[in-house]
Amino acid sequence: MLENETSISTQRIQWKCLESKTEGKRLHYGRFVVSPFKRGQASTVGIAMRRALPQEVGGTSITRAKFHGVVHEYSTITGIQETIHDALVNLKEIVLKSDSNDIWEAFLSVMGPKEVTAGDTSLPPRVKAIDNSQYIATITQPISSNIELKIERDCGYRIENSNEYRDGQFPIDAVFMPVRNVNYSIHLFGNGRATQEISFIEIWTNGSPTPHEALSEASKKLIDLLTPFSGVTCRDVSFLEDDKDSSDSMRSPFLQLQFGNACKLEGNLFENMFIDQLELPARAFNCLKRAEIHTIADLLNYSREDLSKIRNFGQKSVDQVSKALWERFAKELPSKKLGLNQ
């Protein structure tokens, strides 16, 4: 029995793709199995991958469009069925793939009448459209339409300042998140002390990376994030060992500066983390968005009392937000009433 337990505990963790299918040009699915884990390890890996896949896997998007002779987002162009706003929304949805972090320019020059799609865009050699049939606009008259586009690769969301309209250039709120959804489940096998875990991971992407590519990139990003900790020694944290001296140590200008930098870094991180990551019920989420609360940093400016004053935001919603903040980021809403106007 002991020999069997030792054999199982030293087995190398391996993974395998169980299923891979293309449900559409912009919807790819993959199902993977990873095992064997010791008890508790599968949950650690599953949570980390569920967070890393949407947040750390980069995507390529159109971030700016320039229309000649247009001064306002809600302007119309004679001969084009859509308003500028509608065309911008459609450009935002275009799924692109690139292996470069460079900033690129692309051009859309079309003569009507014609239904304009992603395939009509002149893209740089290192950028390609996943679905050339994605709709942009319809030109109803024999006129020429020319649009200049800016393309970037990044992670997460980017909300642009809607007031930055100049010379016909319109910023586009970009979504650099090619992973659409992630699920994982954990199952036990074995008996007694030899019980181990097996994890199944499901990944849906928009096709710009395949689920296999997304899984590989997220794993590499996690390794890079954790590598600095592998070199930590006792000497690095020795000032915490003596409780008597710890308060004196924290009075050190150097440590106070380091603590301040850490707080600033946390604040910067929360400014780039959106409330989508809290996975709130639709009612609470929509109320926060209507109150112009888009990021975790925005949310942390509100106390429980402030949130309860938001229209249609009841105590149950406040509790849901508070619980999600603590479970996902180990943060609490400020207790002091901030008096923000709703």
Automatic annotation (TrEMBL):
GO terms for cellular component: chloroplast; DNA-directed RNA polymerase complex. Its main location: plastid. Keywords: Chloroplast, DNA-directed RNA polymerase, Nucleotidyltransferase, Plastid, Transcription, Transferase. The keyword Zinc does not apply. Residues 1-240 are annotated as: Alpha N-terminal domain (alpha-NTD). Residues 254-342 are annotated as: Alpha C-terminal domain (alpha-CTD). It is found in: Plastid, Chloroplast. InterPro entries: DNA-dir_RNA_pol_insert (IPR011262), DNA-dir_RNA_pol_RpoA/D/Rpb3 (IPR011263), DNA-dir_RpoA (IPR011773), RBP11-like (IPR036603), RNAP_asu_C (IPR011260), RNApol_insert_sf (IPR036643). One of its GO terms (biological process) is DNA-templated transcription. It comes from the Eukaryota. It catalyses: RNA(n) + a ribonucleoside 5'-triphosphate = RNA(n+1) + diphosphate. Residues 29-232 form the DNA-directed RNA polymerase RpoA/D/Rpb3-type domain. Its EC number is 2.7.7.6. GO terms for molecular function: DNA binding; DNA-directed RNA polymerase activity; protein dimerization activity. DNA-dependent RNA polymerase catalyzes the transcription of DNA into RNA using the four ribonucleoside triphosphates as substrates. Belongs to the RNA polymerase alpha chain family. In plastids the minimal PEP RNA polymerase catalytic core is composed of four subunits: alpha, beta, beta', and beta''. When a (nuclear-encoded) sigma factor is associated with the core the holoenzyme is formed, which can initiate transcription. The N-terminal domain is essential for RNAP assembly and basal transcription, whereas the C-terminal domain is involved in interaction with transcriptional regulators and with upstream promoter elements. HAMAP family: RNApol_bact_RpoA. This is DNA-directed RNA polymerase subunit alpha.
